[in-house]
Amino acid sequence: MIRPELLSRVMKHEGFESKPYKDTTGHLTIGYGRNLDDVGITEAEAAELLENDLLNARVQCFAMFAVFFADLSQNRQDVLIEMMFNLGWRKLKGFQKMRLALERRNYEMAADEMLNSLWAKQVGQRAETLADLMRKG
Asked: Which of 9, 71, 82, 117 has its CA 20 to 30 A from that of 58?
């Protein structure tokens, strides 16, 4: 167990950086001095970051699709959350025809609009899988 005093002191001395930067020795670093070049992150740490990112994407979906998001099945919510994570707010907002189809509860059309996009060409099977989940709910 790390004593709180040690943790606090190292945090103070290292300082916090939310984005990667080169430290004084040229190593890519993030957070409180995490040397990404030499240490990287563990799979468990990556999973925790992913979970936080997906929770944030869920909040963004509630904001973007406020009119109907809560009424969607869990699978359909998950599709939009994954798209928000993958695309980001600005690009997902561009799926206007998909959004209109969702507002009308036309999930077949929403899936078609997902597949009729540059995103679908870029992500391939991922788009097919998510469109299928959108159709089936």
From this structure: 117
